[in-house]
Amino acid sequence: MERVIVCIKPIPDPKEWHLLRMDPVTKTLIREGIPSVINPLDKHALEAALEIKDTLGAEVVLLSMAPPFTKPVLREALAMGADRAFLLSDRVFAGSDSLTTARILAAGIRKIGEFDLVFCGNFTLDGSTAQVPSQLAECLSIPNVMHINKMELKKEGGLFLTQQIESGYVYLEAETPILLSFTKKANKPRFISFLEMLEAEKRDISVWNNSDLGLDESSIGLAGAPTKMADLLLCQKKRAGIRIEGSPEEIAQGLAERIYQWGIL
Amino acid sequence: MKESKTCQEIWVFAEQRVGVLHDAGLELLGKARELAKRYNSRVSAILLGKEVEGLTGILMTHGADRVILVDSIHLGNYRLMPYVSVLEKACRQHDPDILLFAASSMGMELAPRLAARLNTGLSAHCIDLQLDEDGKLLQMVPGWGGGVVATIKCPEHRPQMATVMPGIMRKIEGYDRSGEILKLEIGEILDTSGPRVLKVHREEPCGMPLEQAEVVVAGGWGIGSSEGWQLLEELSVVLCGAVGATRPAVDEGWAREDQMIGQSGKIVRPCLYIGVGISGMMHHVVGMDASNHIVTINTDPKAGIFEVSDVIIVGDYKAIIPALIEEIKKKQA
Question: Is residue A180 a part of any domain in this protein?
Fold first, then answer.
């Protein structure tokens, strides 16, 4: 096992999503003032890679497509124990959908070079399409498996995988190279010490733009994305909200009466 | 690419594992029938598997005019690479306008890979689908934990592909068309690469399926303990309902993964939803806000869940639920 590439997505901190606003004219989301954090499941992908590094000494390389201001997020991932980090950043990448994102990440991976494994989080919290892992694997012409709860390396090479499905599990046997996307059940991401964080501040992150990747501009970003956004709505969900007050017994009586009136009992 | 302002062929991927059709595929057939009205489209279910011809009848009564059947010993267990190669071939031969998948564990893995291979667009976890006046599919996609809904189009590439949240669309039954079966021969080109399936382990779901329950009692992080969770179970028993949960409650180990309600779990719309100790994060709310009657109990008077509630109770569930169980028993007596 020589190299594991881990895809990291910096996302706006979910704790601050109430600050999200929409530009009524351009119908784009305004994320201003919301700090970026590592997409939570990506930490599980990284932990899985670091466990391989710990046992077999593989190099762990981080890859991200994001604006340059998200570098601190990659530094945090470096602090966890990754060896190198590459940030793919260019204005022509903006407006990408999952397919064009996959094309750009695939070009980044090809430029990094040979690899045995590519790891992703099973989905990101912001866009939540969960489409990039499968599409990235297709762009790299390697197999992939989603929903990985457990991964075990075989001594003679290859992997045993446990995949979560609706009504149970699928046990699989796989060869490298392969792309895997992990659920939070896969492992417990390691803690980063303050010292490790300080140390990572000094680490270099290579930034590649499209002249480094050499992709046809009509195949990436907004121009290349087959899906187009026609409209965007912030959801306003509201109901009347009648309060029932009093002692627990009074509340219980009032509520039971309503449930009865609704024809449920 | 077809230029016509119409929509002739709507395909639904009829997902099955070990010979059992996934309900979400049948729900999609219901939605496809509704979409088919506008341009008098033909609805096809595409079914892959080994010895699965017996399932074609169910697909037809649920709305398929035609079942495209690919039956092969190589398709016994679902495997991504062979499935993608077969679906790719079927799409290239027959050129559907629309292809729908359930946003299930299988659909989430399969649809994106197929879309990339066909160089077409795919939208994820749709909560609604409509056709516009040009015969194009409008795909309503929730994002940001459900706080935002985007309408996505795929104007220039075919097929227009979408995955749809299980539980959102309505099944129809007794569609009385005696449809045709088109058997697709796959021949030699089947891609058999990728991981091998060693074993499929299925867990029998216990109790009433959450999606079918008329009453859902759901609990969140505010329940605080597995003893507290027991009270929810007791309440659901007297109401002949099922117990659902938020992500934090599943993480705490009080509830199982398959009890989770929300964007990454199940969509429920029972007659009565009772939410206890739930703060009301959007990704839970999208899974329950279509319920007929919503009652919520929380100690925090500012809980966000109250915004989407018909009846609000500020108080301690540990005192209220035992009293409620007694009152319900009295009414039932």
Answer: yes
Q: What percent of chain A has pLDDT over 70?
A: 98
| Residue to test with chain B: of A125, A138, A166, most B Cβ within 10 A | A166
Model pTM above 0.95: no
Helix (H) or strand (E) holding B4: none
Partner B contacted by A69 (CB < 8 A) = no
Query: Any chain B CB within 8 A of the CB of A125?
Result: yes
For chain B, the domains span 9-183, 210-332
Place of tokens 């109430």: A18
Q: Which residue of A has its CA nearest to B165?
A: A129
Inter-chain Cβ pairs, chain A and chain B, closer than 8 A: 254
Task: Identify whether A22 is part of a domain.
Answer: yes
pLDDT digits over A18-35, tens only? 777 777 777 777 777 889
Here the tokens at position B101 are 């998948």
By the CB < 8 Å criterion, does B81 face chain A? yes
Q: What ipTM score was computed for the predicted complex, to two decimals?
A: 0.91
- Does residue A96 form part of some domain? yes
Give A155's Cβ-side CA count (13 Å radius): 0
DSSP 3-state of B70? strand
CA distance A187 to chain B (A): 13
Q: Hey, is the C-beta of B194 within 8 angstroms of any chain A C-beta?
A: yes
CATH number of B9-183: 3.40.50.620
Residue pLDDT, tens place only, A80-127:
999 999 999 999 999 899 999 999 999 999 999 999 999 999 999 887
> Euclidean distance between the first and final Cα of chain A, in Å?
62
Q: What is the CATH number of the domain that holds A159?
A: 3.40.50.620
Domains B9-183 and B210-332 share a fold: yes
Segments in A156-247 forming alpha helices (H): 194-201, 210-213, 221-224
Residue A43 lies in a domain: yes
| pLDDT one-digit tens code per residue, B34-46 | 999 999 999 999 9
* Closest to B138 (Cα-Cα) out of B148, B125, B156, B150: B150
Give DSSP secondary structure letters for A37-67. EE-HHHHHHHHHHHHHHHHH--EEEEEEES-
CATH of domain B210-332: 3.40.50.1220
Domain containing A39 equals: 3-224
